[in-house]
Amino acid sequence: MGIIIALIIALIIIVVVVNAIQQHKEKLEQEKRAKVAKQKAIIDETEELILSLANLPSNPILVEILNNRSLSAAKNMAQIMPENKAFAKRVQEMEARANASKGNNSAPVSEQNFTLPDNEQHLVGILQCIKKLRVTLKSEQTKGNLDAQTYTQEDHKLSAMQLKIGVESLQKRGNMAHQKEMLGSARQYFEKALQTISESAVQTDYCKAKREEIESALEEITSSLKNTNAKDAAKKAKAEEDDLDLLFQPKKKW
Predict the structure, then answer these.
(1) CA distance 27 to 20
(2) Region 205-229: what's the mean pLDDT?
(3) Is 90 helix (H, G, I), strand (E, B) or coil?
(4) Which contacts of 3-10 are long-range, i.e. CB under 8 A and separated by 24 or more positions?
């Protein structure tokens, strides 16, 4: 009887241990899948950014940085799950593409030659892309995947494009308001554009040229407002004079 009880207890212990081991394995698998999903999200986001580069000036360095980011994420996936042959194949594909981008020696197009689209929705999409790219570059620099000099150079380029979008959008709205003789609104747009230029950490030739353009427009608006106020004052004075003439003119006898 004692032997039977001992066997039952041993069996229970074995079942508990096996369940604990199984649960631990499942927990590890879940953690692996979560880590793999995180790396896949990085690759998906990076691929989307690479496609979005078609809307920006050509920049081989930025393409190379993004390809290396995807490659790093693919290697992490293969390291987390080495038994998965698909991940190993993905690494080979990413390596081939990264090596190809390193061989692209074409000169980047200056961000100053960046032409803004007329479509507002398209412009918003480009602005969002630039902001995501700047966050991505900062992340890669923080991880040690990007040296400080390259990060600074590329971030300045993106910052210049972001500045251009902001300034020219405000200038466009200011010009439209000016054409409609909405002088107060036009002045606000132009003043906001000047403020945006002044707050830029890097002052380029573009900033100087735009500041001169906008200051000239503001001077024109100020002159127009003075003329308008002068006309209004003259009109008011004439009206008051007419009222006095009417009040003191000789009364007619009937």
Answers:
(1) 10
(2) 86
(3) helix
(4) none
Distances (CA, A) of 211 to 12, 67, 68, 203, 234: 82, 38, 39, 11, 34
Handedness of CA 152, 156, 157, 158 (dihedral sign): positive
Percent of the chain with pLDDT over 90: 54
The phi and psi torsions of 208 (rounded to 5 degrees) equal -60, -45
| Residue (of 173, 174, 170) closest to 186 by Cα position | 174
pLDDT-derived band at 248 (thresholds 50, 70, 90) equals: very low
Q: What is the mean pLDDT of residues 165-170?
A: 91
> How far is 140 from 151, CA to CA, in rounded Å?
9
DSSP codes, 194-216: HHHHHT-SS--HHHHHHHHHHHH
Averaged pLDDT score across all residues of the chain: 84
The span from the CA of 211 to the CA of 206, in Å, is 8
pLDDT average, residue stretch 238-248: 48
**What's at 61, amino acid-wise?**
I
Half-sphere exposure of residue 27, counting CA atoms within 13 Å on the CB side?
A: 6
Q: Report the greatest alpha carbon distance in the chain.
A: 143
Under 8 Å between Cβ of 101 and 64 = yes
CA torsion 136-64-75-97 (nearest 10°) is 140
Which helix (H) or strand (E) segment holds residue 184: the answer is helix 183-198
> What is the CA angle 228-230-231, rounded to 5?
65
Residue type at position 95: E
